[in-house]
Design a protein that fits this description.
Elements lengths: L9 E6 L5 E7 L6 E6 L13 H5 L3 E6 L15 H15 L5 E6 L1 H12 L6 E5 L10 H10 L5 H11 L8 H9 L3 H13 L4 H6 L4 E6 L7 H10 L5 E3 L6 H4 L1 H12 L4
Helix pairs in contact: 2-3, 4-5, 4-7
Length: 272
């Protein structure tokens, strides 16, 4: 990173035409080399990117992480689907109205969202980065089936999330108080839509490749929520050289934010 002082994070809201209100964390630098939009995964929120936002802003990028509709501080009456999640990202970029490069980053399930956005509006994006994600859903795995079944009852989302992580042998990266607060305000319908898409979205590698977008693949060396072999195959199909972050698991932007930011700037955004 070029600068020692990190940019402050601001919270703002963007209201969409259908009544959805998107909560954002943003960092705005003095100079503007491009816009970076970051999209979280299942049970996640904009705070998942707080450690990396200032580091990207320090390199001159306007950076924005959103709570997807129905998640934490983003309110919506619905509908909830992979397509509407992606349409929100597109609407957000339209609201920003940027005439400079726009780079899209999705982590975990957020990768499926940014892929959908790429297919819906391929001319919007200068690059798309998939972090610990895949070209389609995982099928009906035991952890996803567990969440789907539990959502039909009234068990708190925080409890479902913790057992889900235990089944995946993953630890919670965010403070327990934040996780409890964000899941207390998260719409179960939004989580159900994410689970459905994570189970049933087909492999879209060929369609993504045909968009001509510059795709990038990054994952931690110990990632296992999306099989590494599948991520490598996806990278090959997208003509991308995968970047493996040492010592990281499924959430490298939280495990090693400095290394993740460096990878995004130098490898994924193809900048000097």
């Amino acid at each position: 990173m070029n600068r020692t002082a990190l940019e402050p994070i601001s919270k703002t809201f963007v209201d969409l035409d259908d009544g959805t209100s998107l909560a954002l964390h943003t960092c705005t630098p003095d100079d503007d080399r491009g816009v970076v939009v970051l999209v979280h995964g299942i049970f996640g929120s904009k705070e998942d990117f707080d450690a990396v936002l200032p580091r990207l802003a320090a390199e001159g990028f306007t950076v924005c992480a959103l709570d997807q509709r129905g998640c934490y501080e983003s309110s919506s009456e619905g509908p909830f689907s992979l397509e509407t999640f992606a349409e929100d990202v597109i609407a957000l970029v339209e609201e920003i109205g940027s005439d400079i490069p726009v780079h899209l980053v999705g982590q975990g399930f957020g990768g499926l969202v940014v892929e959908e956005a790429a297919l819906l509006e391929p001319d919007f994006w200068d690059s798309v980065t998939l972090v610990s994600s895949g070209p389609g859903g995982l099928g009906r795995t035991e952890p996803l089936a567990f969440v789907e079944e539990q959502l039909a009852g009234d068990r708190p989302l925080a409890e479902i999330n913790q057992e889900f992580l235990d089944m995946l042998h993953m630890s919670q990266d965010q403070p327990a108080e934040l996780v409890a607060e964000r899941l207390a305000h998260t719409d179960r319908r939004a989580v159900a839509a994410m689970i459905d898409a994570a189970e049933h979205t087909p492999d879209r590698t060929q369609a993504l490749h045909e968009t001509g977008i510059d795709f990038h693949i990054v994952f931690g060396e110990y990632a296992d929520s999306w099989p590494i072999a599948g991520q490598i195959a996806m990278a090959r199909g997208l003509d991308a050289e995968p970047v493996v972050l040492k010592g990281c698991k499924d959430h490298p932007v939280e495990d090693s934010p400095q290394a993740a930011a460096r990878a995004l700037v130098h490898n994924f955004l193809q900048l000097d």
